[in-house]
Amino acid sequence: MYKIEKKHYGLYVTMQSLYSADEMKTYLQEKDRMLAQFDGPFSIIVDLRSAIPPDKRDEQLLEENHAHLREHGLQRMAIVVDSPVVQMQAKQILSNAGIRDRTRIINAAKFPDWEERALNWVLYAIEPESSSESTHIYEGAV
Q1: Are 73 and 102 a contacting pair, CB within 8 Å?
Q2: Under a CB-based contact definition with an 8 Å cutoff, are residues 32 and 65 in contact?
Q3: Closest to 123 measured CA to CA, from 71, 45, 66
Q4: pLDDT digits (tens, 9 = 90+) for 19-77
């Protein structure tokens, strides 16, 4: 199950639980349709706190889809995890897709203010690991 929300900066995606055989394809198609509505650069926040690692078939689909994000205007992406397995797999997918430099993975178990850190990364390029004393976040941003 997934949820995609259009935001002023791009998309806010929540991924949860198991996926049916075609659900990953449907998700990627819907995400691409929504991203096509943006004129210019966009950013994405992906909440994977309730997600389970994708199988090899879905992992390949994600890599292929993510590889095209840079060409289509990806400015920055924040991925929020709380599982070391999901974190390792996300790093691998992002590296293989060639967008690791634009993406930061935030461990929600380490940073309870993960949402603020994700927004500061996608909106202002403030590194999530840096001190949250100089944040620029504003209410209603997510």
Answers
A1: no
A2: yes
A3: 45
A4: 776 888 899 999 999 999 998 899 999 999 998 888 888 889 899 999 989 888 999 99
Residues 6+ apart with CB under 8 A from 125: 76
What pairing do the DSSP bridges indicate for beta strands 42-51 and 103-107? unpaired
Residue 11 CA to chain centroid, in angstroms?
8
Domains in the chain, CATH or no CATH each:
2-134 (3.30.750.24)
Tens digits of residue pLDDT in 9-35: 999 999 987 677 688 889 999 999 999
Question: In Å, how far are 5, 33, 141 from 138, measured between CA atoms?
Answer: 18, 28, 6
**pTM of the prediction?**
0.88
Cβ–Cβ < 8 Å for 83, 89: no
Q: Give the list of residues 6+ apart from residue 126 with CB closer than 8 angstroms, or none.
A: 117, 120, 134, 135, 136
**What is the DSSP code (8-state) at residue 87?**
H
Return the number of other C-beta atoms located less than 10 Å from residue 115's C-beta. Answer: 19
